[in-house]
Specification:
With 147 residues, this protein is α+β, with helices and mostly antiparallel strands. The chain contains four helices and five strands.
Length: 147
């Protein structure tokens, strides 16, 4: 059986999505011409002063992940399947600092003509995760208020 080749446009879209995912996570994919299947993993890590502070932030981080999930679904016109959210237990770094991580995994399919909404929603989500990592929970607080 001969496998159909992905179009040059789908191959270019894959490179674009890989660059976006590299902001704060990674991307797996498969070509299923005329579609490109994308499997995203997004990380949002917050540095904290202690494990107790990390545990106290867990509900807010969960709310952040849920709000981001809603924005992904709405921004993509439900082309992105409902994300799964996982919040880690507090982790210690060798230098004594602690952190907690929210992980969102989600997938979608795009075609040559249907990628723009998905790209826009995914880019916004990865930018939010990057901002949360760089600025802490204060950066994520505006996202929690989103409907």
């Amino acid at each position: 059986m001969i496998q159909a080749q992905a179009s040059p446009k789908l191959q270019a879209l894959l490179k674009d999505f890989q660059q976006i995912a590299s902001l704060s996570g990674y991307l797996n994919h498969s070509f299923d011409p005329p579609q490109l299947r994308l499997f995203f993993t997004l990380y949002a890590r917050i540095m904290v002063a202690s494990p107790a502070e990390a545990l106290a932030l867990t509900p807010r981080l969960q709310a952040w992940g849920e709000a981001l999930s809603v924005r992904l679904r709405e921004g993509s016109s439900s082309a992105i399947m409902p994300p799964q959210i996982q919040i880690s237990t507090p982790q210690a770094l060798p230098d004594g600092r602690d952190y907690v991580v929210a992980t969102l995994t989600f997938n979608t399919k795009v075609t040559d003509s249907s990628y723009l909404r998905v790209r826009t929603a995914v880019l916004a989500a990865y930018q939010d995760a990057l901002k949360l990592r760089e600025e802490g929970m204060q950066a994520g607080s505006s996202l929690q208020a989103a409907p």
